[in-house]
Structure formats: C-alpha cells, structure tokens
C-alpha cells in the first residue's frame, strides 16, 4: 500500500455516532435526502423505508426525504416503497438500460437536500444508524465531498465482496494506489454533498461506485473522500455469472475514469459445452458508459 494511502487511512477513517438527535442538531439547517436505488427489491424495500421514516423522519427529524428510484423493477418494489412513505422516482423504461449508475444519478437529480445518502435496497436487518453515521462523518469536515461505508460482510460464500477483493482492489493498487486504503470501495452506502456530485459524470451500471471514487479523487483530491465504520452488512448475493458481468463493468469504469487505464473492453467471453459435449466459446457485450454531469459549470 502506498504511504499516501496509509496516511489517508489515518486521516480520513472517520469516527461517527449513531446518536441521531446529536447529528440532527449539527445540521444547522442543511437537509438530508436518502436515495435508494431499487431493482426488484420488494422483499426488503418496505422495511428499510419504514424504518428510516419512523426513526429518522417522524421521531427524530434527521432526514428530509426518502426517495426510492425504481430501476425498471418488475415486482412490487414501487408499490411497497410508496406505501411505506417513500417518494418513488422512476428511471425511463425505454432506451439503453443504465442500471444502477442511471438510478443513482436519477435520484441525485430528484433530491432537494444539501446532503445525500445512497443506500442499497437489498440489505437485510437494515440499521438506521447507517444513515446517522454516514451523515455525521460527512458533516465533520467541510472539505469532504464523499464518505464511504465500510463493514464486515459475512456471507454463505465465506465472506462478501467477491468483486471487491478479486477485481476492484487489485485494479486500485495498480491504477489508483492512493485509493487502496478504502476498505469497501464498492460499498453502495455513501454520503455525499449534492453540489459537487451534480458536476461529476456517473458511470452506468455497477461501475458507478468505483467511478464515483475515481471522479471525486480527480476533481477534488484524496482528502475530499472519507470512510466510516457501519459494523456489519448483510445483503443478497448474486451468482458468479452476474458478478463476472459486474467485473467487466468495474474494469470499464477504470478505463473511463483514469488516464492511464487500457481502453475499455466490454466483452465477456464465456465457455460452455454444446449438445454433443464439445466446448464452445461465446462472447457477450456488457456495455458501460459515462452519464454526463447533471450540471455543467
Ligand atoms: O440495474 C440495477 C442493479 C441494481 N440496482 C440496485 O442497486 C443495489 C445493489 O445492487 P445488487 O444488490 O444487485 O448488487 P450487489 O450488492 O449484489 O453487488 C440494490 O439496491 C439494487 O436494487 C439498481 O437499482 N439497478
Ligand atoms: O463488493 C462486491 O464485490 C459486490 C458483490 O458482493 P458479494 O460478493 O455478493 O458480497 O457488491 C458491491 O458491488 C456493487 C458494484 O459496485 C455495488 O453496487 C454493491 O452495492 C456492493 O454490494
């Protein structure tokens, strides 16, 4: 790990509190928008929205609005989100499917708060302290633009974060070593300042998180990024084929967001046996692109 990354780790691994009243008092008029991208999350979205609304809107006014961005769901996600008290914002269902990156940028365009919190919608046993701690860390220093969550990621596959460990971390070491002390570079849980984020491009699909880190680094420098401990996160896990496609998007995000990365290669090669048992090769495109900033300076 570079000495710059190690120094950042000491400076920008930020303490945070789960005392919502104390954090709300420190907002001094700033408003907080929670944005949840959701594609077919009917089994978890209702509980997450209800928990935030009851504890961080009604009981303690830390959160100003809860936005669920429907990312082309085909289940009851939007009904559950709306009936739980969220504002539901839909990405267009026509044209190229920009996936999670498109959903996050759509949520950014819809939010009215000064401070935003992105949360994944597939988290089980959601803890509202995620929001409190992320906001607390972000407002601890006016030079911060983005604060990433980190946590333990237990899973039945023997530990979560497979693309993080096998793809994102090695690429960070080689292409953006100053970010190699970010514990969970792909974490969906992120607090941010709205203004600067409006001026950055977003990467489509699952390249959005690593793209966000690289874009904030390039535009605002390493100390504009922080991280804070949320303890544990349990979420649903995709299969290996889905994560292989995610990996293609992660490496494309590096190509789109760093100067010296090789050209993006959005081709995924797979192998399978045909009807006679012979091995055949297949190519699949996993396109990843930049979504222009919402605000041009
Ligand atoms: O095209 C997509 C893919 C994912 N998501 C949301 O992004 C979050 C993280 O996605 P997922 O759980 O698929 O990623 P994983 O945690 O498995 O890496 C979840 O809230 C998804 O509903 C989305 O809004 N649009
Ligand atoms: O960290 C990872 O390797 C992937 C997959 O996690 P698992 O191997 O299913 O625990 O999950 C993250 O990556 C996605 C792409 O950036 C994010 O959208 C997810 O929020 C995050 O969970």
From TrEMBL:
Keywords, sorted A to Z: Glycosyltransferase, Magnesium, Transferase
Catalysed reaction equations from the record: an NDP-alpha-D-glucose + (2R)-3-phosphoglycerate = (2R)-2-O-(alpha-D-glucopyranosyl)-3-phospho-glycerate + a ribonucleoside 5'-diphosphate + H(+); (2R)-3-phosphoglycerate + UDP-alpha-D-glucose = (2R)-2-O-(alpha-D-glucopyranosyl)-3-phospho-glycerate + UDP + H(+)
Cofactors, names only: Mn(2+); Mg(2+)
InterPro entries in the record: Glyco_trans_2-like (IPR001173), Glycosyltransferase_2 (IPR050256), Nucleotide-diphossugar_trans (IPR029044)
SUPFAM superfamilies with a match to the protein in the record: Nucleotide-diphospho-sugar transferases
A single GO molecular function term of this UniProt record: glycosyltransferase activity
Domain (Glycosyltransferase 2-like): residue spans on this chain: 33-164
EC number of this enzyme: 2.4.1.266
Family classification: Belongs to the glycosyltransferase 2 family.
NCBIfam families referenced in this protein's UniProt entry, alphabetically: PRK13915.1
Name by which UniProt lists this protein: Glucosyl-3-phosphoglycerate synthase
Organism: Aeromicrobium terrae
